[in-house]
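Hi support team,

I'm filing this because I wasn't sure whether my run with EPU finished correctly. The job status page said complete, but I'd like someone to confirm that the output block is well-formed before I use it downstream. Pasting the exact inputs I used:
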Amino acid sequence: MQKLVIEGGRPLRGTVTASGAKNAALPLLFSTLLAPGEHRFTNVPDLADTSAALSLLGRIGCPSLASGDAIRLDATRIAWCDAPRRISARMRASVLLLGPLLARCGEARVPNPGGCAIGARPIDQHLEGLTALGCRFEVGEDYVHGIVARLKGADIWLRVPTVTGTENLVMAASIAEGTTRIRNAAREPEVTALCDYLNAMGARIHGAGTSEIVIDGVEELRPTPEPWEVVPDRIEIGTWLCAAAATGGDITVERAAPHLLGATIDALRAAGCTIEVGSGWVRCARKGPLRAIRLVTAPYPGFATDMQPLLTVVAALAPGQSVIEETLFEARFKHADELSRMGAHIERDGQRMRIRGVDRLQGAVVTATDLRAGAALLVAGLAADGVTNLLQAELLDRGYEDLIEKVQALGGQIRRAEVEVQQQPGLNREEDPLIVG
Ligand code: EPU
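And here is everything the job wrote out:
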């Protein structure tokens, strides 16, 4: 087990380069199963989750080679349609194997992801949509087994605009017979990025980025002749902007995509920060005091649930009362208890937090319960007086590439250290904190 030791209280200043997006890279990697041949990607973030996805693909017969941020992946042959449990059970995104494997092999067996640290997270909409396309499922306690003779296009209405659910259905429908129409589809930029890649491989997908996606199935997809670049990580970018806001610093993020950050930028402006945007960069600076905010999470283009823990830290330092409501995940509040250890005043009222801002946070021993809670505690530690020991730091490696180096380049005092397991307070051992993302 590892921890981050953070000596806080210094404004973070400087320029940092955003990495490729975890949640865009994962569906791209799994989508390769749809198209036999060699796929090449650039700007792939070096993360625990992308490594896990590549070893998962390797285990089912698709080897890959990484060189810096470039990946070559050979999807010529699929040897097994049974996802190895040890790797896939630890990464929720392995559910994204379902659509491509069913489409290419007519069969898929993946671990049933079940609940995780941020909520129940059912996959009923994935299964209902794939059933409409002709699949039949057997759902065991710890696995989902699907078979299909030939996928056939269908009209699908999603009860919730699920991100990975939409991605699974778009992938499967790409090489289904006939037309599929997905209503109430997720509009997240990572869904659009996946559709762009599928279209570049020969798919016929219209309406990506809107809530109605229409897919005219084609016979086959082929890898693109040129390497495909993974889009920047809007949540990582938002994390650096929040670090500037919370520490009273001034950070410019390069290789950014500010147009994907509308709701986060609005929230930070409302909190009293100065935000400037340009082509491929965004800057956040804070000189004066923060202001209280009111936020409600919503599917894109609304305020992202992944940014909620980070804005909680900003609100914890803003004079007055802020209110933040979480509407997507029922258990995404665990950072609040940990922030309270650092002196934050946060009251839970159902899915709502009332946050009374304090002047300063104090360093403490805190635990990352999931990736974004961990990022929030990192930012809190950077802003706080004294030393913060952030336990279960491995969780941050799932979503933040070169984290220590980037924080240090911005003037933050941070180092990684090993920790004895019995030193971890507040960790509920009945939950597997690794099943997130
Ligand atoms: N939902 C259902 N049924 C389903 C699927 C989802 O009821 O079949 C509900 C969920 O319980 C939740 C809501 O729909 O209340 C939205 O969940 P969604 O399916 O959109 O989430 P996801 O696809 O599992 C992705 C990201 C998450 C991000 C959410 C929301 C990936 C790999 N993960 O998860 O990212 O929080 O969308 O934007 O893309 C992270 O990066 O830390 C992370 C958790």
